[in-house]
Structures are given as C-alpha cells and as structure tokens.
Amino acid sequence: MSEKIYPSPPFPAQQQDQVPGRLAPMNPPPDHGENSYRGSGRLSGKTALITGGDSGIGRAVAIAYAREGADVVISYLNEHDEARETEAWIRKAGCGALLIPGDIADPAHCREVVRLAVDAFGKIDILVNNAAFQMTYKALDEISDEDWDRTFDTNIGAMFRLSKAAVAHMPRGSAIVNTTSVNADKPNPTLLAYAATKAAIQNFTGGLAQLLAEKGIRANCVAPGPIWTPLIPATMPADAVKNFGSQVPMKRPGQPAELAPVYVLLASDEASYVSGATIAITGGTPII
To answer: In principle, which of 8, 35, 132, 204 could form an S-S bond with 252, CB 3.0–4.6 Å?
Structure first.
C-alpha cells in the first residue's frame, strides 16, 4: 500500500473568532478516518466515554472505537451540529451513541456526564480525557486570571473529576487514556497555561496508573505534536496557522485519523501490560 499524502503548509488564511472552533470553515478539512479506518472487533462489548468527541482527535477516536465495536458517549461543549455528525458515524458503525453537551470545567457537570453514561450503558470500560482549552499569549501579563483558571479547570481539573467519578463504574480490565501534548516536555512559551496543564496531565497519569493498578484499571496518555483540529485556527495567530506543522521533521501537521490507532491500542486488551506510559505522536519530534 502506498503512503497516504496529507496536506502540508502553507495553509490558506482561516482565522476563527470562536473557541473551541468549528470544522466547517477549515481548509483543508481534517481527516478523522471517516473513509479509511477499518475495525476488527478489538473493543466489542465495551463502552467508551470521550470528552471533546465532537471533532478533532476526539471524533477520530470515536469513529475508530465504534468501528472496533464499542458504544460511545460523547461529552462536548456546545458544538451541536458537529456532535451530531460524530453520532451519525458511530451509529453507522452499528454501535450505541449518547451525546452530552456542557462545560466540563464545572465539577457538577463532570459527575453528571458519568451518571448519564452509566444510566445509558451500565458501565464505563474506557475513559478518554481529551477535551482541552488553549489560548496564545505573547507576554505573561496578557494572561488573565480567568483564562488561567479556565485552562486548568478544563484540561486537568475535569480529568481528575471525571476519572474519580468513572472509576467506581469501571470493571477490571478497563482503561483510561489521557491526551497530553509534546508541550509537556517541550513547552511553547506562547502556550504557557496550556503547556503547564499538559505537563500536569502526564504526571497525573503516571501516578494514576500506580494508584489504580490494584483495581485492574490501566492509565496511559498520548502526547500529540501539531494536529490539524479546529482549536488551531480558533486560538493561534494567522502566521502560526498558515505554517502550522512546518516545525516538525515531517514538515506537516498530523491528522486526527493518524492518532486513532494508538488510542485503540491503549483501550484494548492487547495493551494489558501497558500502564503509566506516554506515547508520542509528533511527526518526528523526539520526547525524552
């Protein structure tokens, strides 16, 4: 099979003025594996809860999980049209789907997400903590207290609260997969708050893996490099969007579809001895 050719920068101007951004205006459109991912039953009978599952990495993971046989619960903020599109892909794969809108920065909503997921499917076998907030700042004094708190509440606070609520409903053999970032090891100074949360996620995951081992629940994280998602044109300056991904050895951003197989592996029984790990998907940028 020949190598698939993915888009490389420079990209057209496409700034968005809404966070977390929308798929429709993106040029080129991201690839979530809609027409390429082929499942083989590796997650049959499982239920997955994915935050930020309406688009980007979350959508790619939802499509892959459904095609591997899992029912999927999608937690998302307010991108209703995009969430319904993801739901349609899940149902087309023959699996159950549930959409739960709301802000996971709210602790009560985190508990409600878990409750609704369990009410619908009886258990949670896979928790994917993927939703994130970021903004770009050129100077420290540009970061407001509100933006700092929102970044931490969304990216790491929700991860703690969702994990805490979900574990009581996760049988032995379950898996938690957290999305960290190359920024955990190579922090971008213009993403100060975001990078700090991603380092916290990596540390949290390592400790969680040890804490949950007796329960038979694994915890790992995936560290993406530059990935072409709506968060990019919604939160980065025009020049950064135009040249997004050019800084890595492969000279292009990754597509969400290129991450999904790793999330499948970490959720599957094939990774039964993998816990506390960070898997880098960075287009050639090493994480040491």
So the answer is: 8
123 residue type, one letter: K
Active site residues: 194
- CA gap 63, 155 in Å, rounded: 22
- Residue 55 CA to residue 255 CA, distance in Å, equals 12
pLDDT digits (tens, 9 = 90+) for 188-227: 999 999 999 999 999 999 999 999 999 999 999 999 999 9
Nearest to 166 by CA among 94, 202, 118, 103: 118
Give the integer Cα–Cα distance in Å for 179 and 150: 17
- Which residue in 74, 82, 105, 281 sits closest to 184, CA to CA? 281
**Residue 7: CB partners within 8 Å, gap ≥ 6?**
28, 228, 252, 253
Backbone angles phi, psi at 149, to 5 degrees: -65, -40
Say which amino acid occupies 76.
Answer: Y
**Interior CA angle at 213 toward 209 and 218, to 5°?**
55
Pair 130, 50: CB distance under 8 Å: yes
Determine the Cα–Cα distance for residues 5 and 78; give it in Å rounded to an integer. 32
Q: What is the pLDDT of residues 69-98, one digit of tens each?
A: 999 999 999 999 999 999 999 999 999 999
pTM above 0.85, yes or no: yes
User: Which candidate, 38, 58, 34, 33, places its Cα nearest to that of 48?
Assistant: 58
